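Bumping with the actual sequence this time:
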Amino acid sequence: MNAKFFESIIPNVNNVYFSPSFMMKGNKLKYVTNTGEIISSDASLRLYRIMRVSNILEVIKQKELRFDFPSRWQDPFEKLFYQRVVNCGGNDYYVACFCFSCDSVEGEESLWNIHAKLSSPIKGVTPYTTNYDVCPVRACFDMLSLCKNLANANPGLKFYLAPVDYSKSRKDILKVKRERRGGYKSLNEFIGDMLLKRKAFSYEKEIRLFVVSEQPFHEDKNAPGFTLLKLNNKRSGIITSLTLPPIPVENPYNANTYHNDLESKANPVKSYLITNGYKKTIYISRLYDMNV
């Protein structure tokens, strides 16, 4: 989707706005890629995010979801347009974001290493530690449930869901920045620019959920650069499953040895999640599994 066409956003669920790349079919949300592929053809859209165990438990126990302020993003080109207070058409807005990937397989190794900062499998070091709160996991979100939940729990906020636009080069993005001259005609125009990212990052297949407020967000004192949004206690089904990190083992060719080693390293983290209230499916990534 070209960001300049984001003005054709479609409101579907209360104060949640979907870009034209999304469509509603009955009670299911679909995402159509730029190649025409429909994601989640048999179910409502599932998106993925690598998070720490502590953040997962935050969702489950505190019923809160942690949104980033884009000033934290590492790539200077993707936060080029961000302003703490953005003026659009004469009105001031505040923006935070939660990012997902629409693919759990393609680019998996890169995503684990970049976002979870895993050790190289060549060194034989596993990502698991005795501090289970910092263990990375890949959460699978039911996006329609999440959008309904956020809209219901935060009636004063607006949410915008759209895929990142990877069609631009470095020069293209800088040109757009010059053309804006620091001002925006509409909030939609600003959100469109916030979707621009260089082609080098296209393996991420990222989809962004922006939250927009007319009042400043409360920054989390325990985690500067984030704001916590409330979730509805009465709604469930937001996170449908978790996947624990891939574990390099000494003998990946022997099926029994591999799976026993995998389970022995992962079981303590599984138990910790279950003990703290997570009751759904927990998988282990088979990224290094040699056994079919």
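The tokens above came from a reply further down the thread. The CA atoms of residues 45 and 143 lie 6 Å apart.
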